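Q: What would this chain look like folded?
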Amino acid sequence: MNTRSKLEAKELEQLERLIRETPIEIDLVNSTMNKYESSRYTKQSESSRTSKMRQRVMMITATAAMIFSFLFVTSLISPTMAATIKQVPVLSSIFKLAGDLGLQTADEKGLSTKLNASVTHDDFTLNVSEVVFDGTRVSIGIERPHKEDEKETLSDRISNIELFINGNPINSFGGENSMNGIFLNPGKDNDSAIIEFVDERNQGGRPFPEQFDLTLSTTITGIQDPLIIDIPVKNKIEDFVTLQPNVSRDYDNIRFTVKKLELTPITTNLTTQIDLIDNSNFTQSPTAKYMGVDFFDDQGNKLKLINGNGWNATGGSYQIMDYRFHPFESIPKTITLKPYVQLYEDNQMGVYQLDENGEPKIQYIPELEVTLPINSQK
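A: My prediction, written as C-alpha cells:
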C-alpha cells in the first residue's frame, strides 16, 4: 500500500469513527462508506475524485446529523413544554385564544373558514385570517403585523366599520329602526380583534343567505381611505336544534315570553319578548327596559353571555330581544331562564350598584322564571 492509500485509509477511518460517534438514531455509516469505497476504484482521476467525494460525504453527513439530531432532541421535549409551545399566540388562530367557547369550537372542529386576505394603505396592513357563520352570528378574525412602537390596540385604531352582503348594506336585512348589530370584540392580543354581526330575522328583518360574499370596509384613524376586503362566508353548521316554546310568565305589568331557542355548536341564541300588559309606553317602564336574562343548564351551570340586541317600536308597548350565549358542551335535558333587573344607585339611573367584587348587582324576578325541556329534534 502506497503512502496515498495509507493516508486515505487513515482519513476514512477517522471519518467512519466521526460518523459512528454522532448521537443520532439513524445509522448513516454503512451506506455512506460503501458508496465512498465503491467510488474510489473507478477509472476517473483518483486525486480529484477522492477530494470531491470526501467533501461531499462530509457535507451530507454533517447536514444529516444536524437534521436528525434536531428531530431526536425535539422528541425529548416534555409534554409541558410542548403544550406551552402550542399556546404561543403567533402559532395559534385568533378564534383559538379569544376566550369565546363557540369560536374555539369552530376552530377545533373545522367549522370556520381559514383565509389569507389582506389590504394595505399608508403602510398599515389589515389581515383577515378566519371567518365563521352558524346561521345566528358571523365572526371575522382580523389582525395587523406587530410593531414595537405601536401603543394603540387594533380596536382603538378602528373608527368605523361598514359591511355589505352581496353588495347590499347589512341594514337592508334589518327591520324597522335597524341598529345593524355590529360588535367589535377583543382578539388574542392587542394586534387582533373580532368583528361580529348578527341578523335580525327574529326582529322583523330578513335572514342572511346560507352563503354570500361579504365586503368589509374598515376606517383606520390616521388613514384617509377605508381598507376594503372581500370575504367568502358560508354556513357550515348541520347539527343544530331549534325550539319555539312560546311560553309566557306574568309579573306586575310585565309579560315575559320565551319565543325561540336555537342551539348550534357555536352559539346558543335566545329570543324573548316583553309586553306591558296595560299597553303603556315601553320606554317609560324601567323594570322592562333594563331587564336581562341568565341562562342555566340542568346542572345549574350558567352560560356566558356573548352579546345581545333588541328592537321595540317607537312609543310601543313591547320589545323583542335576541341574546347570544356560549354553546352547551352537550345538550342538557332542561334549561332554566331567570329574568332579572339591574340595580342602580338611588336617583342615579345608569349608575350601577356594585357588589364586593365590583360587579353590577342584579335582582332575579322568580315569578318570570321559565324551565323548559330540550327536545333534540331539529
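The helical segments are 3-20, 29-40, 46-74, 79-86, 94-97, 101-108, 154-157, 286-289.
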